[in-house]
Amino acid sequence: MSILQAKDIRHDFKGLAVLFGVDLDVAEGERRAIIGPNGAGKTTLFNMITGKYQPKGGAVLLDGQDITRRSVYWRARHGLARSFQITNIFPRLTVFQSLQAAVLSRRSIRLDFVHPVSRMKAVNQEVVELLRRIGLAEQAQVPGGMLAYGQQRALEIGLTLALQPRVILLDEPTAGMSSEETRLVVDLIKRVTAGMTLIIIEHDMDVVFGLADRITVLHYGAVLASGPKEEIQQDPKVKEAYLGEED
Amino acid sequence: MTTRRLNTAVLTIIGLVVLACPSFLSTVHLRLMTEVLYYALFAVSLNLITGFGGLLSFGHAAYFGVGAYITALSLLHIKGLGLIPALLMGGVAAGIIGAFFSIFLIRVSGTYYAMLTLAFNQLLYAVALKWRAVTGGDDGLGGFPKPPLHIPLIGSIDMSNTANFYWFTAVVIGVMLLLAWHLIRTPLGVSIVLLRENEERARFLGHRTAAIRFYLFTIAAFLAGIAGSMFAMFQEFVSTGAIDIFKAVDAILMMVIGGVGHFFGPMLGAMFMVFIGDWLSRLTDMWEFYIGAFFIAMVLYFRGGLISLVLYAWYWLLRAVSGLWGRRTAS
Amino acid sequence: MALDLTTILITCLHGLVYGVLIFLVSSGLSIVFGMMGMLNLAHASFYMLGAYLGYSVLGITGNFWVSLVLGPLLAAAVGSLTEHFLLRPVHEAGHLFELLLTIGLSLVILELVKWGWGTEPLPVQIPPSLTGSVQILGSTYPIYRLFIFFFGLAVLTALALVLFKTNLGMIVRAAITNPVMVSALGTDTPLVFNMVFALGAGLAGLAGVIAGPILGIYPGMATVVGMDAFVVVVVGGLGSLLGAVVASFLIGELQSFGVLLFPQFSLILMFFIMAVVLSIKPQGLFGEKG
């Protein structure tokens, strides 16, 4: 069953057109990779799906419901979580505090000004569990801004995970990483996103073929090809436009 | 020493200092200390918005002034109004104004937010200045009574006595500061800090930042209003000086000199401004220049404020002491 | 109050004169914001410094025209030093601390002025060569005010010419819209910033010198004019010179007619407009989004 759909998304930034009618249909539990050269519009598509921008044309549907006009926070509260290509964390909050903020939000505890956070056992236990799952238990008291790059990326994923989303969107999670770090992050993603619908933007083809079932190729703001990964691997158009340029 | 233990230590020290004052200070200095108390609340309430929420508010005197004027006016016009009701009227009125202004303040950030708070502050200042019939314009309002404090089953306590008023102030401000202290530790407190650290990410985590701001501005306005109320009752006089841009700047000075973003910072800043200001003003007419120059020096070199210097000295002391102790036990 | 055509026209004229003065003050404020992303809350202090320094130059030389040149230059020099030694170091700490520094600066300048020239208003007079009135529009109008208007207009024109017709102006305009790019192209951006900041201070100082005889020279002058300048840059749009021009004359006329028609409310009206614009369309008339 289709859990997330983008229909005919068109968008431009002050006249500079970036998306020319993009369709995306992701089934529940599917693991989809979106690939394409830089500037193809992948992150813009993510921004459309998660609500950062409103598309000039087209619609976004979650579980069949039109959410195109919904705000960013509404979508986050209804099962859509995303991580960022450029690390977007809370620099002066410790890893524990950052994850705690995410867990509180997930549990709809955002405006309570009566109960101290330190007494919320269930919340704090959940944070500890999260720390363990993303492998940052040792760094719990370290401020986000002082983490190593790979750890920051793990926190990025952790924040997204804390929302217990139904659809998790990861934007270039392995950006700027060495092959060792990439391996670790891919393992992490495999472990923590089991059972969720995963949509991932990636440049590293090994990561893509390792994680994804289906691949959508974006080229100059339009879908060049979309289908099971084996098909995409063989597709001559894709090879010429994109894979062929890979080293 | 953990942060929690350090915080408890600081709170205890503050508590002891406040309790000790009437026994050790002259009447003149006790009066200054009373000022320190309500200014501390004023500066702490601004710090909630600026230090914790990350938004520079230029118009915090609006709420302080509303609290002051409403308390003064209600004492003037409502015969037999009690002390606590007068206080609460000022605070609640300021909170209502804060809630109202926040409808507009919610939609802007950064410099635009700062300018809008300035516009609102000046708007209220202009009203206070021009509405002579009600506010007395720049002549101000005076002659309102200072009612005694009625405690059920105990009796009335005369508030014209400096020490009595000091204790009353200490209790009121103490309660308010504890409430603010507690707020920081609640989920709303966490949400407020998210605004400062990364508002966009907070939204992607499901936070409706407009709602967070509404609560933040209203609570901070209420607290500032209480401070203004105490100011009015203490000074027994209110004029446009309670609501003008200079009052707003005073709050900013105290907050920054003390340490923006740190809960105790503004309290230290208030103590500094009141006592050093008083001392300096006796020495020279140029005292505001020295405060301003000191402020600039803090902004340039000590952005953590006086509190960060104090904490640094404290940690250095701890390490020095434990080093000595270690050497003693080793030999 | 007789509201005949003559009064209206004269009030209009007053508005234009004040508009020119406010433009001289707010243009610098707007440009600096556009270029450095920072609102200089001490900007009106340069207006005040120009007036006071000009007054002293006048006292020493006895020549108004010399003070008209030296006053602004001195204000510009102070601006340049301030930007280099105080604002630049704070830049990396973020907008909050930049704003805070400018607050401190305005305080310190105010106190220095009070220390240097006292707290009483200075006895400024209209320069002898510009006293008197002319017959205009059925009434007499002070020559000095006309001088302010035309002189200000000339400065505005010169400014526009430099900005839009010279290479230097092109660099400055580029730096206002995209400072990073300009720096990448090899221009000494810090120097450009400093020069533009000094220019803004100088323009404000110039306004102070010429406004002195009609608006007075006293310690509170910065606050009064500063608030109007804020209203202007908000309405016109932060970073937009065109916005500053349009808004200056709008606010000038509003002040002028406000004082004539409803003196009790003109102050409230100013801030009300500022609040409304910021709430509904923060970019003002011509400003950039966000």
Note down, in words, how this protein is organized:
- The complex is a heterotrimer of chains A (247), B (331) and C (290).
- Chain A is an alpha/beta fold and 247 residues long.
- Chain A contains 9 helices and 10 strands.
- In chain A, a hairpin with a 2-residue loop joins strand 1 (2-13) and strand 2.
- In chain A, helix 3 (95-106) packs parallel to helix 5 (149-162).
- By secondary structure, chain B is mainly alpha-helical.
- A two-stranded antiparallel ribbon of chain B has the order 1-4. In chain B, strands 2-3 form a two-stranded antiparallel ribbon.
- In chain B, strand 2 (149-151) and strand 3 (155-157) form a beta hairpin.
- In chain B, helix 2 packs across helix 10 (245-258), helix 2 (27-52) crosses helix 11 (265-283) and helix 10 (245-258) crosses helix 11.
- Helices cover 76% and strands 3% of the residues of chain C.
- Chain C has a two-stranded antiparallel sheet.
- In chain C, helix 3 packs across helix 8 (189-215) and helix 9 (221-236) runs parallel beside helix 11.
- The radius of gyration of chain C is 19 Å and the shape is globular.
- Chains in contact: A-B, B-C.
- The B-C interface holds B 50, 54, 56, 104, 107-108, 110-112, 114-116, 118-120, 122-123, 126-127, 129-130, 245, 249, 252, 256, 260, 285-286, 288-289, 291-293, 295-296, 299-300, 303 and C 33, 38-39, 86, 89-90, 93, 95-97, 99-101, 103-105, 107-108, 110-112, 114-115, 223, 227, 230, 234, 238, 264-265, 267-268, 270-272, 274-275, 278-279, 282.
